[in-house]
Amino acid sequence: MSTRIGIIGAGQHAENAIYPSFAEINGCVIAACCDIDKERAGALARKHGVPEIFTDYRAMLEKTDLDAVCVIIPAHLLEEPVIAVLDQGLDIFIEKPPGITAAQTKRWAAIAHKKNSIAMTAFNRRFEPVILEAKRLVEERGPITQALAGYYKNMGAMARNPFEPIDILGSDVIHSVDFLRWTGGDVISMRSDVTQFFQSYDNSFNAIIAFGSGARGILSTNYAAGRRIERFEIHGHGISALIEPPRLARISHNEKEYVLRVEDLVNMNGRDENGVFRLINGFCAETAHFIDCVRTRRNPSCNFDESAHTMELIEAIRANTIK
Fold first, then answer.
1. How many Å apart are CA 245 and CA 264, to the nearest integer?
2. Cα(30)–Cα(15) distance, rounded to whole angstroms?
3. 8 neighbors 19 (Cβ within 8 angstroms)
4. pLDDT number for residue 323
5. 305: Cα separation from own chain's centroid
6. 78 close to 99: Cβ distance less than 8 angstroms
7. Domain at 129-269: CATH code
8. Residue 218: per-residue pLDDT
9. Rounded CA gap, 101 and 111, in Å?
10. What is the 3-state secondary structure (H, E, C) of the chain?
11. Number of other CB atoms surrounding residue 58 within 10 Å
12. Low-confidence ranges of the chain (pLDDT < 50)
């Protein structure tokens, strides 16, 4: 039996990552798409064989028989469509960030529980093959003791925060914050430093985090740096993984090192450039995980409760900065 989904949003990310990833899942049918730009929605509908096109998500929800809805729109616009989807008892998949505040995400999670809806945020770093395998290799030898997330971009010349109306921490650095929560677990204490380099808005976010597991997390980000650099580290007992996503990780175990490459983990044969991009960046796996959870009624790894905890850590980093 097929799983019928509707997609709200036809922007660049939806076009490049979300539509094609859902379209290639066996038994998943994109039954309807919606965007305020009818031409963009129509172009994606023709490309992926979507039979129904809407410019009003309410009409889509009313007129289309759906199992789940994907909402791929800016976070400050999520409130009304998310509530509308959940009120109908449908399952839901949204992009990060999961709203504007932790309280908002918690409220959505409560509605999802009440309606028995599967509710997932697309934190794609949790699904990147190289990151997943590196984490598995460390945990195979015992608990994670330390994790580091570093994210740097060259946006120092931008006079305004490019992610408005949300700050850089909540809109983009959230990937790094969620990685630390995913590897470390529940937060018990944290100290942060938020500052501004060359601009009047916050563009560097740093923190040391203590987790209930005993692990420690380090966040280091700077959006006035030389270029885009993303790196992760995961350390355990006698083993370290230095990850350069999405292509490779350097695994050191008892003084010996080898390189783990994404080509050794996934089959790229027959995929075009976009297909490879989606595969190695976790978009294929995150959408497949969601559809599997819809079918099995299993709670997603990055459900709305989990997402709310990441949002709480985001808010704590803002509030507890060194003065």
1. 14
2. 13
3. no
4. 61
5. 14
6. yes
7. 3.30.360.10
8. 98
9. 16
10. CCEEEEEECCCHHHHHHHHHHHHCCCCEEEEEEECCCHHHHHHHHHHHCCCEEECCHHHHHHHCCCCEEEECCCHHHCHHHHHHHHHCCCEEEEECCCCCCHHHHHHHHHHHHHHCCCEEEECHHHHCHHHHHHHHHHHCCCCCCEEEEEEEEECCCCCCCCCCCCCHHHHHHHHHHHHHHHHHCCEEEEEEEEECCCCCCCCEEEEEEEECCCCEEEEEEECEEEEEEEEEEEEECCEEEEEECCCEEEEEECCEEEEEEHHHCCCCCCCCHHHHHHHHCCHHHHHHHHHHHHHHCCCCCCEHHHHHHHHHHHHHHHHCECC
11. 12
12. none
Task: Count Cβ atoms below 10 Å from residue 199 Cβ, excluding itself.
Answer: 17
What is the CB neighbour count within 10 angstroms for residue 302?
26
Give the pLDDT confidence of 80-99 residue by residue, as tens digits: 999 999 999 999 999 999 99
Round to whole Å and give the CA distance between 281 and 71: 19
Say what the pLDDT of residue 322 is. Answer: 73
CATH class for the region spanning 3-123: alpha beta
One-letter amino acid identity for 71? V
What is the pTM assigned to this prediction?
0.96
The closest of 57, 42, 44 to 8, measured between CA atoms, is 57
266 is written with which tokens?
Answer: 């996934």
The residue written with tokens 């199992």 in the block is: 67
Domain residues of the chain, as ranges? 3-123, 129-269
Q: Which residue has the tokens 């460390």?
A: 138
Beta-carbon contacts of residue 242 (< 8 Å; ≥ 6 apart): 231, 233, 249, 250, 252
**Structure tokens, 157:** 């010349």
The helix-helix angle for 102-115 and 79-87 (nearest 10°) equals 10
* Closest residue by Cα to residue 94 from 150, 174, 160: 174
**For residue 97, cis peptide bond before it (omega within 30 degrees of 0):** yes
The letter for the amino acid at 146 is Q
